[in-house]
């Protein structure tokens, strides 16, 4: 158990503190998630191409053509996508309005050193496919070794096949049907994979199928991590979902309090109008 925990610590990204997703190998031999690396660059003022285009291994070879191409008229979407992937225009390391290519200094969160990524920034890094496979195999091993039993079966318990976020419990097939009878409100509960730790079901981004974590005040919509690093939200005001929720809740609470305090006055005015109508009819 201790060795598995030690191994798990080695598979955690130093930025998001979760298991690596599309890890990139830095020149200092440490690794960082693709999305996390792009967020760090954005925080340091570097523009980054759309992270939905996955990094490759090896990275795309830089084209020898002039980087001034990025200042020409906006090309067609397919052409723009090819330019971004090949390293032209506003790529990592090119700050907005820069005349000459600049090298990117990336602050490694693991060794606390500024690592030089060259002119192409993340475009010059290799995707660590070996580490990615190790993470995937570790996930599979954990799922196989930790069998989850039904919490409602009479002994001997059967292995759980379904989970319910609303009930915060895991069920076998028969118990799930028993505790979610047809025609009741519980029948609307959606089954999920069984687990021992139920988290509240989060809203999913319809575009990237990732859980939304922030709220864009400019667009007035929820955004996920991938949405945040896209150009469309570069200069927008983005706050965590919890902060936006609390602010909107306070605003609604004040509005409701005002409406409720005015309710008696409105009801009195309605009664007076009804009396006036009756008197006019007579």
TrEMBL record:
Localization annotation: Cytoplasm, Cytoskeleton
Chain intervals with Low complexity compositional bias: 52-67
InterPro entries: E3_ligase_FN3/SPRY, Znf_B-box, Znf_C3HC4_RING-type, Znf_RING, Znf_RING/FYVE/PHD, Znf_RING_CS
Domain B box-type: 200-241
Superkingdom, taxonomy of origin: Eukaryota
Stored PROSITE patterns: ZF_BBOX, ZF_RING_1, ZF_RING_2
Swiss-Prot/TrEMBL keywords: Coiled coil, Cytoplasm, Cytoskeleton, Metal-binding, Repeat, Zinc, Zinc-finger
SUPFAM superfamilies named among the record's database cross-references: B-box zinc-binding domain (SSF57845), RING/U-box (SSF57850)
PANTHER family xref list: E3 UBIQUITIN-PROTEIN LIGASE TRIM36-RELATED, TRIPARTITE MOTIF-CONTAINING PROTEIN 46
Protein name as annotated: TRI46 protein
Name of the gene encoding the protein in the UniProt record: Trim46_0
